[in-house]
Write a structure and sequence with these properties.
Length: 521
């Protein structure tokens, strides 16, 4: 990775500011994981319907995904630090509102506001890093720390949540955010510089509405596909979202001040980095989701123990992210990304074996291996995305990066989930459920969790037979999904080597990639 001779290096203020920027990233991912542990307690207290419970869990992610592009470009216009502070204030207030919600409707509203607030955090923090760290080597390290903060939040969320729920009411899991956001509000004005695009025009409200509607429709359709399988309704939502997205992109080409400059996609480095990031998140999120279920429902670990045994993989991810900058001094970024994806593929292959032998230790080792392999890929693709655009467009680029990640995660859970579910239900046919009443058999055939619940209501021998059959069926699905993840990781590695062959990491500042000229009026 080459840098221009006059590229300014970061000082003490920038490095302390990096630590400040890690705080909202930590909370962003914690809030996506900590609620899962609180679901049983809040269900007993608020008594939500099944539909309301789904919205309590899902609406946070929906609003994060839908609002990212709007918030990223808004930061370019009004100032990234200002948007970060506005979002932090809203996040803290919404957390208090959620903690003391007295009805399911109140909690759904609070989670929606939390999602909108969280959508300001990732693009604001990442675009601030783009402007604080001009040296490519330093920026790669800073982005590694930024990504590590998300990983750390996801790792400690279940642990902290488990401890709080052991001593306090379910609302306490939301109050974790309040002191952290207060600290951010106190120190950010002094440690974080302000940046905005001096030539940015007004925010186009119609474009913002189109982008939110497009992403929400696609994400909702994918979510329905994951929950209910292949059907007309999920595809209608996805198609509607894609059509709205098409209208959105056509509109951007006609505007003097577009919400996003669609010509960014003409840059091979930018488009390839987005695609690589999406496929990497695809395999990572799908595996995280199903390994968590496997540890609890097949191996019988409690949520807290499952979170604890997952800590080594999170530590590996943090180490891999922070060491990426060191690796770039020894090899070109495309080679590092390809090697990381090949290592991840080995981890997924080993995971398919570990699932068969049902060993906690083996699962932890394979989980750690593919996390270590994927960490440099996340760091370098993120660096490519924000580093290949001019600094004034960093907010929009960061938002597109995060939106791609959200889509990749949703697709990973949906596609790999469909594989696991289809194989599970095929294995749980009439012969496997012989002797079980029809209504209970339908529940057991639907999900592994349903089978475990049904087993407790059956005679001991029949219940034990059902448990063995259901766990074996889920394991077979996980094995196939792991093999599929390995194939996708290998194909993505080949894609990286093919597209980036013979080129260095693009950087808009060092002259290897020229800034896009302003749109013609």
């Amino acid at each position: 990775m080459n840098k221009a001779p006059d590229t300014p290096r970061a000082g003490r203020r920038e490095w302390i500011g990096l630590a400040v920027l890690a705080l909202p990233c930590l909370l962003y991912s914690m809030d996506m994981t900590v609620l899962n542990l609180a679901v049983p307690a809040l269900s007993a207290d608020l008594r939500p319907t099944s539909s309301q419970l789904l919205w309590i869990v899902d609406i946070y992610g929906f609003f994060v995904a839908g609002a990212l592009i709007t918030m990223g470009t808004l930061g370019d216009r009004i100032g990234r630090r200002k948007l970060l502070l506005i979002g932090a204030t809203a996040f803290g207030l919404a957390s208090i509102f959620a903690a003391f919600a007295s009805s399911a409707e109140m909690l759904i509203l609070a989670r929606a506001v939390l999602g909108l607030s969280a959508a300001t955090l990732a693009p604001s923090t990442l675009s601030l890093l783009r402007n604080m760290f001009h040296d490519p080597q330093e920026r790669t390290f800073a982005i590694g720390v930024w990504i590590s903060a998300f990983s750390a939040g996801g790792a400690i969320g279940p642990v902290v949540g488990g401890v709080l729920l052991a001593y306090f009411w379910w609302g306490s899991v939301f109050l974790i955010a309040v002191p952290v956001m207060l600290l951010l509000l106190a120190v950010a004005p002094f440690l974080l510089p302000e940046f905005r695009d001096p030539d940015a025009g007004r925010l186009d409200i119609r474009s913002a509405a189109l982008s939110i509607a497009a992403v929400l429709a696609v994400i909702f359709g994918i979510k329905r596909l994951a929950e209910y399988g292949i059907g007309v309704e999920p595809f209608l939502y996805i198609i509607a979202g894609l059509l709205i997205g098409y209208v959105f992109f056509r509109r951007q080409k006609t505007l003097k001040d577009p919400l996003i400059d669609v010509r960014l996609f003409r840059r091979p480095a930018f488009s390839a980095a987005l695609a690589t990031n999406l496929f990497t998140v695809f395999v990572a999120f799908g595996s995280f989701f199903f390994v968590a279920q496997y540890l609890q429902l097949v191996l019988g670990l409690s949520p807290l123990k499952a979170g604890l045994v997952s800590l080594p993989s999170s530590l590996a991810f943090i180490i891999g992210s922070t060491l990426t900058q060191k690796l770039t001094t020894r090899a070109r970024p495309p080679v590092i990304m390809a090697c990381g994806l090949f290592i991840a593929a080995l981890g997924f292959l080993a995971q398919s074996w570990a699932a068969e032998v049902q060993s906690v230790t083996a699962m932890v080792l394979t989980f750690t291996l593919f996390s270590l392999g994927l960490a440099p890929v996340f760091t370098l693709t993120t660096d490519l995305i924000v580093g290949s655009v001019p600094p004034e467009r960093a907010g929009a680029a960061a938002a597109m990066s995060e939106t791609g990640a959200e889509l990749g995660g949703a697709l990973g859970v949906a596609v790999l989930g469909s594989i696991v579910t289809a194989l599970y239900r095929r294995s749980m046919e009439a012969d496997a459920l012989a002797g079980i009443p029809a209504g209970m058999a339908d529940t057991a055939r639907d999900t592994l969790g349903g089978a475990l619940a049904v087993a407790t209501e059956l005679p001991a021998v029949l219940g034990e037979t059902l448990l063995v059959t259901a766990r074996e069926a889920f394991t077979n699905g996980l094995v196939l999904a792991s093999l599929g993840s390995a194939v996708i990781a290998i194909l993505t590695a080949v894609l990286v080597l093919g597209i980036f062959r013979g080129s260095n990491t693009p950087d808009a500042e060092n002259g290897t990639d020229k800034p896009i000229p302003a749109p013609a009026e």
